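Handout, section 4.2: multi-component inputs.
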Amino acid sequence: MTALIILSLLGILVLMMGLFHLKNKVLILIIPVLIAGIFLNANEYGLNASYFSQMVHFDNFAISFSSLLILTTTLIFGLCLQQYKTSKKPVEDIYALIIFSLVGAICMVSFNNLIMFILGLEIMSVPLYVLAGSNRENVLSNEASLKYFLMGAFASAIVIFGMTLIFGATNSFQLDEIRNAVSGTKMPGVLQVGILLFIGGSLFKAAAVPFHFWAPDVYQGSPTVITAFMATVVKTAAFAGLFRFMMVAFQDISGLWVNILVIITIATLFLANFSALSQTDFKRLMAYSGISHAGYMLIAILVLNMNAADALFFYSVSYSLATIVAFGIFLTMKNATGEYSLEIFKGLSRKNPFLAFGLVIAFLSLAGIPPLAGFFGKYFIFTSAIKGGFLTVVIIAIINTMIGAYYYLKVLNMAFTKDVYHSAPVKNHLLLDAVIVFAAIGTLILGFFPGLLQGFI
Amino acid sequence: MRSLILLIPLLPLIGFLLNISWGKQLPKKISGGIGVLAVLMSFLLVVYGWLQSSGSESTIDYTYFKWIETSAFSINFGFQLDNLSFLMMSIITGVGFLIHLYSDGYMHKDDGYYRFFAYLNLFIFFMLLLVMGSNLLITYIGWEGVGLCSYLLIGFWFKNHEYNDAAKKAFIVNRIGDLGFIVGIFFCLLNYKTIEYAALNELAAGSIQIGSAVVTTITLALFFGSTAKSAQIPLYTWLPDAMAGPTPVSALIHAATMVTAGIYMITRLNGLFLAAPFTLDVILVVGTATALVAAIIATRQNDIKKVLAYSTVSQLGFMFAALGAGAFVSGMFHLTTHAFFKALLFLGSGSVIHAMSGEQDIRNMGGLKSLKVTHLTFLIGTLAIAGIPPLSGFFSKDEILVNVYSKSFWFFIILFATAMLTAYYMFRLYFLTFHGKFRGTKEQADHLHESPLSMTFPLMVLAILAVVGGFLGIPEVFHMPHTFNEMLGKIVKIPELTVSHTFEYTVMGISTLIVGAIIYLTYQYFVTKEKLPSKSEKGFWSTAISNKFYIDEAYDSLVVAPVMGLSKWLYRVLDRSLTDGLVNQVGLTTLLSGQSIRKLQTGRTSLYLFAMVLGLILILCLNFFNR
Amino acid sequence: MISLSLLLLILPLVFSVITGFLSGKNARASAMAGALINLVVAGYAFTQFEANTSYQFAFLSDWIPSIRAKFHIGIDGINLLLILLTNLLLPVIIYTVKHEDSNRSGLYYGLILFMQFALLGVFMALDALLYYIFWELALIPIYLILLGFSSQPDFKTFVKFFIYTLAGSLFMFIAILYVYIKAPGGNFSIDNFYNNHLSEQEQVWVFLGFFIAYAIKIPIIPFHTWQPDTYTKASTPGTMLLSGVMLKMGTFSLLRWLLPVAPLALATVTPVVIILCIIGIVYGSIIAIRQKNIKTLFAYSSLAHVGLISAGVFALNADGFNGALIQMFNHGIIIVGLFLIAEIIYTRTETYHISELGGIRNEAPTLAFTFLIIILASVALPLTNGFVGEFLLLNGVFQYNQWMAVVGGTTVILSATYMLRMYQRTMLGLDRDYTKTILDLGTVEKIMVLGLVLIIIVTGIWPSILLDPIKPAVENLLNIIKIVQ
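Output:
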């Protein structure tokens, strides 16, 4: 809760600092505060406190996920410096919007009342619509913003419609009350429709099939750090929120919706991985990669128990870290070449073995090759799913892992080929490198000692 | 004594190691000296060891270490020494020494002089292992080892690919037999849990049922192994090609020692083979057939070494026929005498080739009587192999004939006829080479010279042996001691001959008469009438014979070509196109379907929204069915 | 006192990191030092090893408490020889690295040492999850070595190798998860996996899961098609790693993780599997005869040899197991020897094509002679190490089925055919354009080649040094399988 307050204040402060054109200094403020936020947040671990007439509930689930969200955002701010350093326009508003979006995300993982959820969803989304178009000179960026806004609004409407139906069936917005209402008695048909609509709308932010269409276009058009933010923070928040809602409210009646979700999961996995195979643009590739990871994370929602919560958390951490490493390296390369295609990685191992090595860690972790964090993310999800009786889904997911390996390896292949794409020297940047090193080492450590992040929830 | 015996094979091995490591730097005298001395010392040790042990009753077993030991079986690295192995060892080292000595002269101008001695020493080492080993696997080491040396020595002049092909052929054909050998070993291990010779023969004397499937299979497998090494039908084709090697090699490996390994091994396991009458019959048939076929082919060959090679195949057939008739000692006896006279003949031919500056075609020779020692010793060898009494070949061949007669009349007739053929082709060879006019070029005539002492000395020694060797086994009709029977009687069962003395005398008399007649006729034809084998043969039979019955061609088109074709087909079609193609197709399909799915992403927001709504409707519909 | 097995595992990792930061000659020296130090440690462990069934020099510690995965490594008769082999081959492999690319050589050497770390981990792991991690871990450095340092880098070939092997191991992953969830102990320990109380039907599925991974890695036909291309196109150190050590991961795992984990399945599956192995022997040998590229030829010959090793394993008797373990060691030495010679030829002539070679013996007799010895070991001539292994293996198969042994035994003939054919065409005959000025072995090359030749001959004459330490473990393994069956 403290973190929520501090971050809100920070957002306002940053916005005000914009008046004084402290562009480059402002990060010096933001990053320490965010780090402090992580610690303050972690400090509340185990307190299980509720606030605002139980509108939000900071249990271990919420604390763990919100710590992750803040950490991810911190790292993304680390990437920001490189992105906006040369910008002549003020960037404080962009920073503030990111922070506000983060606040919304935290609300989404800690809600205890559906109103709070929709509030969080909107607080997170609206800044994003702006951020997606924050590169005003770029047509693609504007287009992305518009697309994202149009479809996002549509999705929000669906979520709210679903909520209304749920309210109609259970007569409450409070999660535990909904739970009590649905257990035991026979429920009206609208409840099921409501749940499905709610799931559908939430899956929009998580970018799962068939609500994923925005992702490649928006990822491609948005400024790179914003893409990274969408790929990590937004996805994590969407999944954590959905998981929380289903877990607390609808665990007992999983028969109503689980089969549909299985189909969505399988469709997501196949469609994403197949589509990713022939991508040549880095950001589009990451979009499809993100969609496929949504498929794996959906398995956790299928299983829906404490094991799965643990697994989902670990998965989110590993996925976020690896994605940040990938984006960090991409940013470095993009700044050197000014291009977005995968080709820019060509010959990286010759020009900069350090970055090439980071790329290896990031992409093999995303591919789920042990002993990197990504493997254990998949491992925990798969074990919980097998225990939960979803062996077929696991086998399909594993087949998709093989397909996925292809396009991740394709990127690595670029880095290790003999021909060099661009002779321009790759300039290392201290902060950026620090972020890459931090996230890469995190990926490695979690790969060797996955026990470190176990049992938080 | 134990370590002294170990020295016997080790000395040649040391000789090999010294020569192969430093031979190139050493002067020829030293490297040759090492080679010759190693074998000489080994020979002296054999003689010493034999004298020492001749008094003792039982065989001596020396186990040096456990070679391969698993929970299922244990194979010792050990030697078994008795009169049989000592006999073989003395032939190997004795004849081996003479041939080493001869090689010093023969190879003196060759660049690979040191290498030649190294390989020869290595051969002696492996050959000694083969005959000394106390179990089948030690023999197998030697068996494969001599095959390797044969490969190295046939292809000694490795710049010539024809020689290399011959070497390769020898190795591979021998490997076919080796598979039989090793399968025999597996059968022994599986059924009898041992491959020790002593134990196997003991088992055969006791618990093994005569003619049982197991013992028949084992003996057939081992005999199949022998057909390769000892050049019998169907695996003899490598031996004539093996003449590509330097002549001392042909004398040592492809006449006197290595090719007799099969006869030795079967004699060593005589107990087991006697327990398998069917196998003995097979051996008799194969031996007789080989003897006949090879002799027929030899009558039309014009290469001096090829004639001798087919003669060797034929003589080995005689020995196998003896084994098949159960007369193991007779086989060994013929082996011994054959070692003397065939080594002599080969070395003699080497001397001729040496004198003729490499010429091997007998049609281009003639009138070489000027090479006195060579001529005389060659004549002795020819007489011995033709079976003129009292030279060695007469006695040993006669013994085989008598033994086969007691088993089967028809096989006796065939072998008898073969013996007559032998006399014919050998004298044909002799007359064409040494009598008549000189038919070579002028340079050859100018260069004609007798070989140096190091070459003629072994010829003389071998000639003496070829003359007197027969007295080791004089038939009992002459009431003289049969040294061979006494020597090997304890090890090998000697069959009781049911043949009357009259018959024996008759055979000896008739055969001597016929041989005499053949010699006369051959002389008339080739010397008096000066007829020469024509360049191109006419008539069905002549063509077939001079082309060796097209056996090589048949093997080429029936075995080699199909395997080669299969290799290509398997690689191109089955492996690359089908199996790998299938794997690639899976990957390609995945990629292609990825590209088509990707087309869903058009970039148009309205379409996306439509898809989302469609998805939602679909979900709700599914939900309807799910209920 | 640090456990010897842990030391063996950690040293390569430490040196890998150090080497990764160096470049040029320093990297080479550091890598070589690391490999030699580990070889000394491995040699010491080998001498200290006692022939019994326990896991020696073991190291056990908690790793992931929540799922009861432990970090448990140790050495016993099953992995002893492979640990020795890995450490023996590493100096040779490092030696063959060409250092023209000094800029990235640190990375190259580092990856090779990292590979050693992963391989040793696979061999020593006594915890199924740890084992799986190392198994997959080994894929990363070899893939990067292939991709970044190959003579003919070819993404298609290497990605096929990667995805193919990854696909296989993911099936194994499912099988491991299944056993872990179903076995009574609820952990990944090897004992729990051996006593998994699964039904016969379940074990058949578990068997298949494991087997696909191994069949691809070994490879057993028809899962082998990645192998010839990869061997051919990889740089020689990469090929050596693949053929010398990495494929032993598969054959080793058959003994460690397949047979004892799914013994009930064996009655059902063995006949089919062993026939595949036998077919592989003949198939690989026949194809090898007409290969034009030395490395492809060795690849197919390797296919035939590992087919025999696998057949020996599935013969399910002491001879087969002993032979398989011995032959894994021998095959590693021999195939690395062969590729070393191929590399030496290549550095002098810049070609692997048999038709362009010939007459090398005229100029380089030592090279030709040592090559011949290695070839003879490969065709299993007695008194070379290849013979002992092949004899035991064929004998093992023979006890299983006589006809299979005879068919498999044709390798005796066919291997001689392709090897001697190749030897004749590359070494014998007259000089060719490419080989006119070929140099004989240099000093270091001589040390390397003669070292391998020495191992070939010593272990051929005296196989007990290898056989004695492993026998109790083999007996124990047979008991485990027999008791459960």
